[in-house]
Amino acid sequence: MAEIRPTLFADGVIEAQVAHGVARITLAVTAPDGKAQPCGTLCIPVTQFPALVNGFGNLLRQIEERVRAQAQPQQQQQAPAGADTQVSTAFRFEG
Known about the structure:
Elements: E1 12-19, E2 22-30, E3 36-45, H1 49-76
Antiparallel strand pairs: 1-2, 2-3
């Protein structure tokens, strides 16, 4: 049976603090009025924080590489008028 894990969407951070060896990051989602509203708290032991940050850094580099790779052919090849130029923005990364 598959594990059920909650999915949390966040597009910002409201606050971050460290207490008792745990980093607590209050995540935010932008409401329709444009203001940030809390949507969850990410709790990470400070001993694991560097590994998590390195993982996010690696993910960011992979995203940048893929975006550059997709942009190059588009810049080199001009699409004919009326052609569909939609580019997929979905990526899947392995750890």
